[in-house]
């Protein structure tokens, strides 16, 4: 692991937190807008939702700040501290929420994100001090006057990182926190320097005593690893912060290192369990605790006496029976409980998934796993064939159980890569808000199908194209309120993002109720730009597609949002690169609907095995509607295209043997596999149907990249290579097929 | 880096620059290659500009190694950075650092 692994985690976590913060702020803003005329919700409900939103925003800011402190990123700590202070006042209802306050907080969030992005680029300082200063000033104007003095005091205190207050301040009894830390061996290599944790603690309060424990460290050079961490600390700490805050300091090391925090005035048992949990000579650790001032020598004697008189395992029970009665603990517990009940009521799923914990895994490792499972599926299939040949029933049965399990493992591992599109969609709330404000338009964004899942790599790549399309819809699609009024439309424009799964691909729709596309104007513009000849007769669909041509823009005025004519072609190229396509449907005056079809890009698919001559082919099962026998009487050939009558429906079809130039005679009986893609259907005529199978897609080599109609290959259980048909391009071929056109 | 003073039979060592994880291995190699332990060591840390946990850890190791050989390790000069780090870890007593003069102007 690299030195900066922890920092990378921090950056990613901040991005997520800030994104969530933005969503919450926007939700607050929407709440503000509707609070005047809201009759559907009772006031109490509103109140609870609001409190929870503000709480969550506060917690996001707090975590960003807390973790920044650990890394010694003072500029981020300073800035977020200001934000946090204001949010705290908001939480305590010392100030009221206004739309201008939300606007400022949104800007603050942007600034934080910029700082984080700079950090990701390796810049560990304030990138835009003017903006920071302006925002801090703005924030302070919102604070109630009485608070201002306190606030500046709090700031100067938090910035006070001089004078390492190590000197022992005399024995407080057990009136201070006791923090026991044992860093794990990899801490230093992972960039978790114990020193920075101690320094950060100094900002939260006063370290009254530190004892460095190094008994894990060898006392000779041979066994010593200079990059491993052998350090542990027993710390006496005075602070008015909550247990949560202190715990948060160690958030990044909690999983691997041992962190124990004993609140002030804790019962003796807490220390006893600390002594017994740490695998160390009890008396020595006890003495350390005395040295820290956390225990008095008398208390230590008493504790050791209790310990020796009780069997070891009973310690935990004593603790539970007597309970920790320190006031801070109770307070913290109540606060936490209140927090979590409020959280449940607001967004149960989200809270649950956050609480359930997530694990960050490098994408490479997941890919490796999926690759291996792919191999496992193949060898599972071949084992199944051999077991069937062996006529050993018991073996066949256990192999079939095994294969079922493999199938489940496969599904589970594929889900590792799948993410919901909701996060990508939600990002557009802010975009729509800002762009609409800039353009002086009123637009409401509604999102459906946010839980539709797709591969992470696809999600990452569609962000930019989607952004462009959304901006475009706002800029060119939805009209200004005045225009809308004149047309008798509601003043508020509607933009809709929708996602759903359709036959193995994901469909994303961007729908607006704006002006729609003007086919005539597009045509005129295209002729003017020399993209088409004025004599061309084009249907509407083809005219719409012209907007994706390079250098095409119908915007009369070039705004900074869109209309420069760069972009739409790039958008289309991006989508095509992903193996997808864009359809446009528009009605002038009513609106436009852009439909993106994207593959889910799964490395393993459920396929249907068919045969032509001796060659096996795999058709993705998702795209298959049905299989029927080809009745030679129903098939007709016209203009080089072949059609058949499928229950009184005209179905174009193609014979794979003709398409791929196989010269042998057609068998007497042929089968048609009816496939669909989007709203089109077509038939693929093959010799034999073999049945379903799972298959691993192996990409074809560079040499075959021009080969149309084939999406990849797969090695079957018996070692044969099967070609996987690429249905979308195959359908295109069926549609465009010229007489005697043969792919070689 | 190391000099054995033949008249007093005391090692002298001077560490400079950064005692951080980035240099930990290199420092460790330098320290472990010298056959130390048979004589006391006077350590000059006056020109150390930056210390992190790995640096302190290395000093603790040195101290331990010398203690095992019943030899003394003394820090004779130290910079602000060293003083600060050792103090933060509560190791002033361990290194006997309280009375050691601090060189000014080298810490960052």
TrEMBL record, chain A:
Domain CheW-like: 604-736
Domain Histidine kinase residues, every copy: 395-602
Top-rank lineage group of the source organism: Bacteria
Coiled coil start-end: none
Region ranges (Disordered): 337-358
Enzyme's top EC category: transferase
PROSITE patterns: CHEW, HIS_KIN, HPT
Catalytic activity: ATP + protein L-histidine = ADP + protein N-phospho-L-histidine
Residues with the Phosphohistidine modification: 62
EC numbers on record: 2.7.13.3
Keyword set, alphabetical order: ATP-binding, Chemotaxis, Kinase, Nucleotide-binding, Phosphoprotein, Transferase, Two-component regulatory system
Gene3D superfamilies: Histidine kinase CheA-like, homodimeric domain, Histidine kinase-like ATPase, C-terminal domain, HPT domain, SH3 Domains
Pfam family, one: H-kinase_dim
Sequence ranges assigned to domain HPt in this UniProt record: 1-119
PANTHER family: CHEMOTAXIS PROTEIN CHEA, SENSOR HISTIDINE KINASE CHEA
Function of the protein: Involved in the transmission of sensory signals from the chemoreceptors to the flagellar motors. CheA is autophosphorylated; it can transfer its phosphate group to either CheB or CheY.
Name of the protein: Chemotaxis protein CheA
The organism of origin for this protein: Aliidiomarina sedimenti
UniProtKB/TrEMBL annotation, chain B:
Record CDD domains: STAS_anti-anti-sigma_factors
Gene3D superfamilies: STAS domain (3.30.750.24)
The STAS domain, residue ranges: 14-108
The protein's name: STAS domain-containing protein
Species name: Aliidiomarina sedimenti
């Amino acid at each position: 692991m690299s030195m900066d692994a922890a920092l990378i985690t921090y950056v990613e976590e901040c991005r997520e937190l800030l994104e969530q913060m933005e969503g919450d702020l926007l939700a607050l803003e929407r709440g503000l807008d509707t609070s005047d005329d809201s009759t559907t919700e009772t006031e109490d409900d509103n109140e609870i939702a609001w409190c929870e939103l503000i709480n969550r925003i506060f917690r996001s800011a707090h975590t960003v700040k807390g973790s920044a402190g650990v890394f010694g990123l003072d500029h981020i700590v300073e800035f977020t501290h200001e934000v946090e202070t204001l949010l705290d006042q908001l939480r305590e209802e010392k100030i009221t929420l206004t739309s201008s306050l939300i606007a400022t907080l949104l800007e603050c969030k942007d600034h934080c994100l910029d700082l984080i992005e700079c950090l990701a680029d390796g810049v560990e300082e304030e990138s835009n001090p003017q903006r920071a200063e302006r925002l801090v000033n703005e924030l302070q104007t919102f604070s109630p006057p009485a608070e201002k003095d306190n606030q500046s005091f709090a700031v100067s205190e938090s910035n006070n990182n001089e004078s390492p207050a190590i000197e022992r301040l005399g024995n407080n009894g057990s009136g201070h926190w006791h923090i026991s830390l044992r860093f794990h061996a990899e801490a230093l290599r992972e960039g978790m320097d114990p020193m920075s944790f101690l320094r950060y603690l100094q900002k939260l309060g006063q370290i009254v005593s530190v004892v460095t424990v190094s008994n894990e460290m060898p006392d000779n050079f041979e066994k010593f690893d200079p990059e491993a961490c052998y350090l542990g600390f027993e710390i006496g700490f005075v602070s008015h912060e909550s247990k949560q805050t202190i715990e948060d300091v160690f958030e990044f090391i909690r999983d691997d290192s041992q962190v124990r925090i004993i609140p002030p005035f804790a019962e003796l048992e807490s220390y006893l369990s600390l002594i017994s949990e740490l695998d160390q000579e009890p008396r020595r650790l006890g003495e350390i605790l005395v040295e820290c001032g956390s225990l008095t020598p008398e208390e230590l004697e008493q504790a050791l006496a209790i310990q020796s008189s009780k069997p070891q395992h009973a310690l935990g029970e004593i603790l539970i029976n007597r309970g920790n009665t320190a006031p801070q603990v109770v307070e913290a517990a109540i606060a936490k409980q209140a927090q979590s009940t409020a959280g449940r009521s607001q967004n149960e799923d989200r809270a649950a998934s956050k609480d359930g914990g997530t694990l960050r895994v490098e994408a490479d490792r997941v890919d490796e796993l999926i690759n291996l499972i792919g191999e496992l599926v193949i060898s599972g299939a071949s084992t199944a064939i051999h077991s069937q040949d062996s006529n050993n029933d018991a073996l066949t049965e256990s192999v079939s159980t095994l294969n079922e399990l493999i199938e489940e493992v496969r599904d589970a591992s594929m889900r590792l890569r799948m993410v919901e599109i909701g996060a990508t969609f939600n990002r557009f709330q802010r975009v729509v808000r800002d762009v609409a404000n800039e353009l002086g338009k009123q637009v409401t964004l509604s999102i459906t199908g946010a839980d539709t899942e797709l591969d992470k790599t696809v999600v990452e790549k569609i962000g930019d194209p989607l952004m462009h399309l959304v901006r475009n819809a706002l800029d060119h699609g939805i009209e200004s309120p005045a225009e809308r009024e004149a047309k008798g439309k509601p003043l508020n424009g509607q933009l809709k993002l929708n996602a759903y799964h359709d036959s193995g691909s994901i469909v994303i729709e961007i729908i607006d109720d704006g002006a729609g596309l003007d086919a005539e104007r597009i045509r005129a513009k295209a002729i003017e730009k020399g993209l088409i000849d004025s004599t061309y007769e084009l249907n509407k669909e083809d005219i719409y597609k012209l907007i994706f041509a390079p250098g095409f823009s119908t915007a009369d005025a070039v705004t900074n949002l869109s209309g420069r004519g760069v972009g739409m072609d790039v958008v289309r190229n991006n989508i095509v690169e992903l193996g997808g396509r864009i359809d446009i449907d528009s009605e002038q005056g009513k609106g436009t609907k852009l439909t993106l079809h994207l593959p889910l890009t799964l490395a393993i698919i459920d396929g249907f095995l068919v045969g032509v001559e001796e060659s096996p082919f795999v058709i993705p099962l998702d795209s298959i509607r049905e299989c029927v026998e080809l009745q030679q009487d129903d098939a007709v050939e016209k203009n080089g295209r072949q059609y058949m009558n499928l229950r009184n429906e005209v179905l174009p079809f193609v014979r794979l043997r003709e398409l791929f130039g196989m010269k042998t005679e057609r068998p007497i009986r042929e089968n048609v596999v009816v496939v669909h893609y989007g709203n089109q259907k077509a038939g693929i005529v093959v010799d034999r149907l073999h049945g379903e199978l799972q298959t691993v897609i192996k990409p074809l080599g560079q040499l075959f990249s021009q080969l149309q109609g084939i999406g990849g290959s797969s090695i079957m259980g018996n070692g044969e290579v099967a070609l996987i048909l690429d249905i979308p391009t195959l359908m295109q071929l069926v549609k465009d097929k010229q007489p005697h056109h043969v792919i070689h | 880096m190391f000099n054995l003073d033949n008249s007093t039979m005391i090692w002298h060592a001077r560490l400079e620059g950064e005692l951080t994880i980035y240099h930990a291995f290199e420092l460790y190699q330098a320290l472990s290659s010298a056959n130390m332990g048979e004589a006391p060591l006077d350590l000059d840390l006056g020109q150390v500009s930056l210390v992190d946990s790995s640096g302190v850890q290395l000093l603790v190791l040195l101290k331990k190694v010398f203690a095992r050989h019943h030899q003394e390790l003394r820090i004779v000069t130290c910079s602000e950075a060293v003083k600060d780090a050792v103090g933060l870890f509560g190791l002033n007593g361990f290194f006997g650092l309280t009375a050691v003069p601090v060189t000014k102007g080298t810490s960052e």
